[in-house]
Design goal:
By secondary structure, the protein is mainly α. The chain has a domain of 208 residues: MFS general substrate transporter like domains (Growth Hormone, Chain: A). The protein is built from 17 helices and 4 strands. The strands form 2 sheets. A two-stranded antiparallel ribbon has the order 1-2. Strand 3 and strand 4 form a beta hairpin. Helix 3 packs antiparallel against helix 4, helix 3 packs parallel to helix 5 and helix 6 packs antiparallel against helix 13.
């Protein structure tokens, strides 16, 4: 289960960053403007947002194995089609198809993983979840730079095909069929409102930094998205079987985990994007060199995730662990604001490694604690909501920090020449530190006693096993916990 999920998430998350490297080359080949070529990324993000709300119901109704493998197969096929595209419209259409598969992979895979792992192993599952979430954004620019430079832009899509085929083949043999739950009728009204609202809001947020926040199309789509999501809240709170289970936010631990994850996603993903602009636009580095200087962050996360799951979380509990991790992230991001035109690249790389180390102390305990009191029956819907909010937080982070750079001015005129304006990047990093600090405040609402089951010492055995015996997907062998959400 773990291998299939990591492969699926790695493909989906890396795809967004790896394609960004190829956009200028694609624009030149198709002879379209930079504004038009941006639709390749925006189409994928909007499609992703539209189909996330349906993933929980589909996984519960048809079984996680079928839906996850179907989503991976669709994403893989769409990737191959993207590589054959002969025009912008064709490529955007295939990217939208990619987003359909990508939107279902993360929530369904996460739900399956948390059903396999008993509560005392949830922190271990969170460490697994952290690998693709943080490795892929850092590795994408490196792989993209190599492929575009030495092969062709088409290979940024073809690279997904062998990974996807291997994941489907392995999953078909290794994954167990989950018993199909009685989920009732599909909530069409909730899906339309949530999917359309999220899609429009994601479009507005993505286009805002490029077209300007006063643009009529940006204002109209963002406002329409907000209104539709507001209407969705009213509809879903009254629905007996909502596609977006907002009532789960009544669970204090799950609500606190989501608040932390949204705010730290704004900070983290915004910082990754801003540092790539600092390297490329500010320091004049190539996309490949920029990716290599960002990559230490992924190494830090992988090391930090192991420290978190094996040593720190069982001893400190989620509240002190998450708060300490967020304070470390805040300090590191604030120190990045000191980076200037002549700053040592090794100092910058060290900061990226420390950022990853700190994020390992946030992602792992937050995900473990957030699902600690969620019942197996509600895990699919909880995963849908968790992933939708995290996706939105990441998009907001990129938009907010890009806007800060544009508003400050990425270039300034000196002695008759335009030169990089490093104050813009300093403002962006300080803004990211503010969001991380806000997440720190949110973490103080977490109560360790509510996540006590996840703090037990790890038992020996393989991932997805309890005392050496396999745990069937969808089965939680822990004893009932007061306050568990059964929505």
């Amino acid at each position: 289960m773990s291998a299939v999920f990591v492969a699926a998430m790695f493909m989906s998350i890396m795809d967004a960053t790896i394609v960004n490297v190829a956009l200028p080359t694609i624009g030149r080949e198709f002879r379209v403007s930079p504004t038009d070529v941006g639709s390749i990324s925006i189409g994928f993000l909007v499609s992703l947002a539209v189909f996330i709300p349906a993933s929980g119901w589909l996984g519960d109704r048809f079984g996680g194995k079928r839906v996850l493998l179907g989503a991976i197969a669709l994403f893989t096929a769409a990737s191959a089609l993207c590589g054959t595209a002969n025009g912008l419209g064709e490529l955007v259409g295939y990217r939208i198809l990619q987003g359909v598969g990508g939107g279902m992979m993360a929530p369904v895979g996460m739900a399956m993983l948390y059903r396999v792992f008993p509560p005392e192993e949830r922190v271990r599952a969170s460490a697994i979840l952290t690998v693709p979430t943080t490795l892929a954004p850092a590795l994408g620019p490196v792989i993209g730079g190599v492929l575009v430079t030495d092969l062709s832009w088409r290979w940024v899509f073809y690279v997904n095909v062998p990974i996807g085929l291997a994941a489907v083949a392995f999953g078909a043999v290794a994954l167990r069929h989950e018993p199909q739950a009685k989920v009732g009728r599909f909530d069409v009204a909730g899906f339309v409102l949530a999917g359309t609202g999220l899609g429009l809001l994601m479009y507005g947020i993505s286009e805002g930094p490029m077209l300007g926040w006063r643009s009529a199309s940006v204002l109209a789509t963002a406002a329409a998205g907000v209104l539709l999501l507001a209407a969705m809240v009213g509809v879903e709170l009254r629905a007996s079987q909502p596609v977006v289970a907002l009532r789960l936010l009544g669970n204090r631990l799950f609500r606190s985990g989501n608040v932390v994850m949204v705010l730290v996603s704004v900070s983290f993903f915004g910082t990754l994007y801003a540092v790539s602009l600092y390297y490329q636009d500010g320091r004049g580095m190539s996309a490949l060199a920029s990716g290599l200087s960002t990559f230490p962050e992924a190494l830090g996360v992988m090391a930090g995730a192991q420290m978190a799951s094996r040593v720190i979380y069982p001893r400190l509990g989620p509240r002190r662990h998450i708060t300490g991790g967020l304070l470390a992230v805040t300090v590191v991001v604030a120190l990045m604001a000191l980076l200037g035109p002549s700053a040592s690249l090794w100092w910058a790389r060290l900061l990226m490694f420390c950022l990853g180390l700190g994020m390992g102390q946030v992602f792992v305990p937050t995900q473990a604690a957030a699902f600690a009191t969620i019942s197996p029956a509600a895990t699919g819907k909880a995963s849908t909501l968790f992933n939708a909010l995290r996706q939105l937080g990441g998009a907001v982070g990129v938009a907010v920090l890009t806007t800060a750079i544009v508003a400050t001015g990425p270039v300034v005129q000196r002695h008759g020449h335009l030169v990089p304006h490093f104050l813009a990047y300093r403002v962006a990093f300080l803004l990211a530190a503010v969001f991380s600090l806000a997440a720190t405040v949110g973490s103080l609402a977490i109560v360790d006693s509510e996540a006590a089951r996840t703090m037990q010492p790890r038992r020996r055995g393989h991932a997805g096993r309890l005392d050496g015996r396999p745990v069937a997907a969808g089965v939680d062998r822990g004893s009932p916990t007061p306050g568990r959400a059964d929505v």
